[in-house]
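User: quick one, fold this
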Amino acid sequence: MNKILVTGGCGYIGSHTIIDLIQNGFEVICADNFSRSSPDILNGIENATGVRVKNYPIDLCNFDDTHAVFQENPDLTGIIHFAAFKEVGESVNVPMLYFENNLVSLFNILKCAGEFNIPHFVFSSSCTVYGNPKSIPVTETMPFEVAESAYGFTKQMGENILEQSYKSLKLKVALLRYFNPVGAHPSNEIGEMPYGKPANLVPAITQTAIGKLPEMKVHGNDYPTRDGSCIRDYIHVADIAHAHTLAISYLISLNKEVTCEVFNLGSGNGYTVLEVIAAFEKSTKQKLNYSIGPRRNGDVVAIYANNDKAQNILGWKPVLSIEQMMITAWNWELKLKEMENKKN
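Assistant:
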């Protein structure tokens, strides 16, 4: 059985990926210090899979603690590296926090991967590497534009670091550029647990609909788009998670000694913010209290993916619709409220 270290495995995409890995025959260990996640997610993973995943609650910016995980697990086959801060707006306000956390943790993981001869590495990247693209849909060969946030810049730098070092580290690398993952696991055992006030659209929608937030702001309606709001490529988090299982399996299957390949993970469709709100209201029968506010720093106008490469090489195809994204997100929000009521 191939053993995979998932860093940031109690985070949103990481936890869904752990479930998908287990359900596809992998053994998994996790490293997550819960700075932006909850230990309750480990219970949800166990409920969904019947497997209690071992977690190391360490800060990956601490090299000695990171090194100890590798010493204890010399039989690792690969690493899927999620651990990073990811709030675009926060990164604009406190960029040094993002540079230090996101890059130092990557350095430490890569040093250990090289020392312990772990050959397979999947990196959690982002469509933010494209900045404001000159054309859409974006393909993997398009050059980076200027990053609109420190978060996006750390993803550009992370990719560049891997592209410059994978040969010397003897790594087979997949760089996965996510577009906008939303929704929750169909089991309703895990979902998104935003840190503080949600910066992403769908948790802001569900928290407003359930009454945690009095109103939701749409950040701008004067963009050059079909209804004035930003366009994004929304994709169900379970579809994104499965792409990681396919990517690590692909790397393991390769006869090449080293490689570094890039894959877009998006639905290939662009939805405006107002269209997503309409899809939520229609699929859940919930009326949303929202208003139009000013543009938000760090937001690009419009971006969505060409996902042909992931489909052709990884055999990946997103299957869950925008309605299923909204319904599973809403069901998860209802469960969070139920859990909170039980605690009180």
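User: anything notable?
Assistant: The chain has a mean pLDDT of 95.
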